[in-house]
Amino acid sequence: MRYVTIKQALERAARMKIDENTDMLALPVCDLVALTLYETANNPGRDDRGASRANFARRMIFDRMVGTRRTGSHPAVRAANALEIKDLGGAG
After folding, report:
1. What is the per-residue DSSP string for 9-39?
2. Which of 9, 14, 16, 49 could staple 30 via S-S, CB 3.0–4.6 A?
3. Which of 27, 33, 28 is nearest to 57 (CA)?
4. Please, what's the b/e burial string for 42-78 (b: 16 or more CB within 10 A of its CB; e: otherwise)?
5. pLDDT 10s digits, 44-78
6. In whole angstroms, what is the distance from residue 92 CA to residue 84 CA?
7. For position 92, what pLDDT does the model report?
């Protein structure tokens, strides 16, 4: 088995077509976990617990596919803001 990142497994599961003829036991574990995560996110239960699980699964997928960021900052703003320190001591 080759090394597969979480992002690669989620991308493969999003492209995968599953029908009744698919042998689920022949799939790698990473694909099964990613498919289960997508199924949980896309088919929430009717109760509060199912909705909570679906939101948690959606958040996990979003964080792994897009990435997390610092609270209160936009990723594009972080690179644009820079601090320039000038030498005020006169040495130099």
Report:
1. HHHHHHH----TT--GGGS-HHHHHHHHHHH
2. 9
3. 33
4. eebeeeeeeeeebeebbeebeebeeeeeeeeeeeeee
5. 878 888 888 888 888 888 888 877 666 666 655 44
6. 16
7. 55
| CA dihedral (55, 50, 13, 18) positive or negative | negative
Q: How far apart are CA 82 and CA 19, in angstroms?
A: 52
Residue 37, classified by CB atoms within 10 Å of its CB into exposed (0-12), middle (13-18) or buried (19+), is: buried
- pLDDT, residue 74, reads 63
3-state secondary structure of 90: coil
What pTM did the predictor assign? Answer: 0.62
Determine the residue type at 16.
Answer: M
